[in-house]
TrEMBL record:
Gene3D superfamilies: Isochorismatase-like. It comes from Microbulbifer salipaludis. PANTHER family: ISOCHORISMATASE HYDROLASE, PEROXYUREIDOACRYLATE/UREIDOACRYLATE AMIDOHYDROLASE-RELATED. The keyword rRNA processing does not apply. It comes from the Bacteria. Residues 8-146 form the Isochorismatase-like domain. This is Cysteine hydrolase. GO terms for molecular function: hydrolase activity.
Amino acid sequence: MFQSHNPALLVIDVQLAIDHFDTGDRNNPNAEKTIALLLKRWRKIGLPIAHICHASKFPDSPYYPHSPYFAFKPEVIPREGEPVFTKSENCAFIGTNLDEWLKECDIQDLVICGVLTNNSIDATVRVAAGLGYRVFVPEDATAAFPLKRLDGKHVPAEDVHWIFLSNLDTEYCRVCSAEELHR
């Protein structure tokens, strides 16, 4: 599957803050468990891992650094030596030195997981592909919320998730399952 010997796992925005927005309509409620399994595997094999956290510029946001919801979820807490990149935008490459770190580590393949499929995952995947990385997105290690369209209609979370992944697949990344990454 990978063309290099050291694919990096990027875990994006899996912070307590995401639950602040959950009204019970999120798809893929096991995404965090799947991400935890990916982390366990990457750690066991000794592959590179990077954690991305979102730091909102707005004091009333649950993603604001002084918010009680800013912390990583317990399933994905970074271990000593695993870099943490803090972003203020939707893309993990904007305003961080993530690209420099990846280049220093000679990383060419990225596995991108986290939340939300239609926000930070989408933005990061697109930029990563534009920067020349080969990107893999395990569909069961990301999630979405329902979306209200501009015409007032509602799109269920499962549809939002699959529409965004379907749009990314083949042009920007390869959508797969976490299980496929274990082969």
